[in-house]
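Bug #77: duplicate submission created two jobs. Keeping one. Sequence:
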Amino acid sequence: LNQAFFSKLEDEYTASCAADGWDEIRQASEASRERRHVLLRQQERIPLSSDYYTVQLPEGADSRELRCSSEASEVTLAEPSFAPAPRPRRNLDELRRVEAETRRAVEEEFSRQRG
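Kept job's structure:
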C-alpha cells in the first residue's frame, strides 16, 4: 500500500519533469559537467616538454632522509595566536548626537500627547 503510493508520487514527479522541460535541463547540465571534467583532466596532464620527465635523482637519493630547513620548522612549530584582533577605534560623536536628538523628539511627542 505504501509502496504503491510512493510509486505513484514518483511517476507523477517524472511526468511533471518531462512536461516542464526539467529533464532536458538536468541532462544538459550533466553533459556540461562531464565535458568540464574531461577538459580539467586534459589540463591536469603534465606537458611532455616539462622537466618532470627529464629530472634524474643522484645516486643514493632514494635512501636519503629528507628534512625541512630550520627556518621552515620554526614557522611550523610556532604556536598559533587565537587572540582576537584589537577592534578599531571609532568616533561615536555622531551616534551620540543622533541618540540625543531622538530622545528629545520622543520626549516632545510624549509631552504633546499628554498635554
